[in-house]
Amino acid sequence: MQEAEETNAAAKPRSKRQKQAAVLRIARKLHRLAGVALFVFFFVMAITGGLLGWKKHAGEMLMPKTYAGASADPGSWLPMDSLSFLAIEALYQSTGQLLEVDRIDVRPDKGSMKFLFPRRNFEVQLDAATGRVLSVGRRHNDWIEQVHDGSIVDDWLGIPNGLFKVFYNTVMGAALVLFTVTGFWLWYGPRRMRR
User: Fold this and answer.
1) Which Pfam families did the record assign (predicted)?
2) Cα separation of 50 and 55, whole Å?
């Protein structure tokens, strides 16, 4: 009877250990398969994420710096339509391209406005009070952000409502959670089994 109890006691830890080893094998397999399947996407996200983190610290390589205008008082600024016309003209004189303004980034504390153009990511900064051109440049950070979040695919393929972007970010977020959990288990599981 005592031998049977010792055999059962010895079998229990082995069974528990086998379960832990099975979980460890599953974690390793999930980690490896997800890593292989999503390698390119994680590589692209890592590179573009790093560039976006540096966008304001890379001189003007990724985006023009924000310049200050003559007055931060909006009451002294020129009308928006006049400033838009001046921005379009400044871009035409600088690049020879006649484009429409896509959006306007107002910097009240700086007294300046950034006029953003959709094609080729041009930006014209104007002094909001005088209309003087402060800068004409390219905003590389915009297309880098589109690559980073996947919205560039929506634009290229004409997918409505940013559906690819939502799908892509959901998959990448879930994969990051999976890598975190399985990576932790790959580190912790063997330590737990040694106890």
Assistant:
1) PepSY_TM
2) 9
Task: List, for the chain, all residue ranges whose pLDDT scores fall below the cut of 50.
Answer: none
Which ranges in the chain belong to alpha helices (H)? 2-53, 80-95, 140-149, 151-157, 163-194
Residue whose tokens read 């996407």: 41
Q: How do residues 40-56 score in pLDDT, each as one tens digit?
A: 999 999 999 999 999 88
Q: How far apart are the first and last CA of the chain?
A: 28
Distance CA 80, CA 194 (A): 70
C-alpha to C-alpha distance for 54 and 72, rounded to whole angstroms:
27
**Residue 117, exposed/middle/buried by CB under 10 A (0-12, 13-18, 19+)?**
buried
Q: What is the pLDDT of residue 60?
A: 84
State how far the Cα of 122 lies from the Cα of 91, in Å rounded to an integer. 8
CA distance 16 to 9: 11
CA gap 123, 121 in Å, rounded:
7
pLDDT at residue 153, rounded to an integer? 93
| Nearest Cα residue to 100 out of 114, 112, 85, 113 | 85
Sorted by sequence, the CB contacts under 8 Å of residue 105 that are 6+ apart come out as 113, 114, 116
CA 52 to each of CA 1, 41, 71, 84: distance values in angstroms, whole numbers, following the listed order? 70, 16, 30, 28
